[in-house]
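SUBJECT: A protein chain and its fold
Encoding: whole-number codes for local backbone shapes
Chain under study, with its fold:
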Amino acid sequence: MNTMACVKHPLLTIRAALKRRYAHEMAEVLDKWQLTGMEADVLLFLANNPGCDTASDMVTLCQLTKSHVSKAVDHLTEMGYITQQRDQQNRRKVHLLLTEEAKPVVKAGQAAQKRFVDVLTRGLSDEDKVAMKRTLEVMIENAVKEE
């Protein structure tokens, strides 16, 4: 069945399609290291966003649930993939740091993210990719601005 034939606008179905494809690309990583999707998201957020290293950053920038991030951070700390370090100026702020043990997990996760992007952009010219990036940035800004 052609999904596009049933829906008036592709923006109304893209979220589910992206979520399924991302889960497909990440499945091997999650299975190999026995991680939840949220745990992988936390590790990859820390690796991909230098300078944004608190749970609050993740909640704010990625619109994640505080309780889910907290649970993932606790488990990743137990597993030895991250350490928690109190900020010297603000004792309430805790910085999350990736450990050496996290490196192979992060490398595999980043490879899965690259495959995800490669699949989605297959057949697009470099010019199309630049335009798409610009368009998505504006759309995300509009979505956040309108809350």
In short: The beta strands are 82-86, 94-98. Residues 14-33 form the longest helix (20 residues).
